[in-house]
Task: structure prediction
Amino acid sequence: MSDRPDSLADLRERTRAFAAARDWEQYHTPKNLAMALSVEVAELAEHFQWLPTGRPAELAEGQQAAIRHELADVLLYLVQIADKLGVDLHAAALEKIALNAVKYPSERR
Result:
């Protein structure tokens, strides 16, 4: 595993090991992972459907735990897709923040 247990690299290594131990790599194509990711995002969104704002005060304690688990599923599928496509998620996120800063400068509020 990675030197840092809180890193995306560590999650990548753990998801690789998890899939390998179950012989699931054959199913983990970018297409299949993207489809699974979209399902998990929908499951996350379902917790907020029909709430006035979705702020934490509107969520029952059980919902908060379920949302935490859905967020984890989304992250893990995202890490796996990035792994399959050779994308450094941290670098991609920094690149996107920089692009957004140009597209949406703070002076334009």
About this structure: Helices lie at 8-21, 30-46, 61-85, 89-103.
